[in-house]
Amino acid sequence: MGQAEPFHWTLDSAFAFWSEWAEKLVEDDGVGPRFWSAELFILTYQPATIAEALCQLEVARDNFIGGGRGDGLDIQVMDKAMDLMRHEVLLQAVALAGRSAASATQA
C-alpha cells in the first residue's frame, strides 16, 4: 500500500476545512488525518495579519478548551499572535505620533 498524498494547504483552505469539521469530527469517519493536517498547518503558520492570527487563535482556543496540546503549539500560536498584535499597536502609535507632530507644526 502506498503512502497517502500530502495535503497542500493555504491558511484559508486549512481553516475552512478545520472549521467545517471541528464540531463533527468522528475518529472513524475518514477525515481525521486531513483534519489533523489542517490543524497542524494552521498552528505552525506564521501570521502576517491580524485576520490570520485570529484564525490561529480560534484553533488554539479550541485546543485549550479540550485541555491543551501536548506539543505546545497552542501556546506558540498565542505568542506569535501577541507579537503580531504588539507590532501593529506600535505601528499605530508611531503613525498617530507622526500625525500629532504634523498637526502641531501646522498650528
Describe this structure in words.
The chain is an all-alpha fold and about 110 residues long. The protein has one domain. The longest helix has about 35 residues. It is elongated and about 70 Å long. The chain starts with 10 loop residues before the first helix and ends with a helix. The model has no long low-confidence stretch (mean pLDDT about 85).
User: What order do the helices and strands follow?
Assistant: HHHH
What is the rounded distance between the termini? 76 Å
Mean pLDDT: 87
- Going by helix content, strand content and strand pairing, the class is mainly alpha
Total tally of structural domains: 1
What's the shape? elongated
Tally of helical runs: 4
Rg over CA atoms, rounded to whole Å, is 19 Å
Key structural traits:
about 110 residues, mainly alpha, 4 helices, about 0% strand, elongated
Question: Topology, please?
Answer:
Layout: H1 11-21, H2 32-44, H3 50-65, H4 73-106
Helix pairs in contact: 1-2, 3-4
Structure described in brief:
The chain is mostly helical. It is 69% helix and 0% strand.
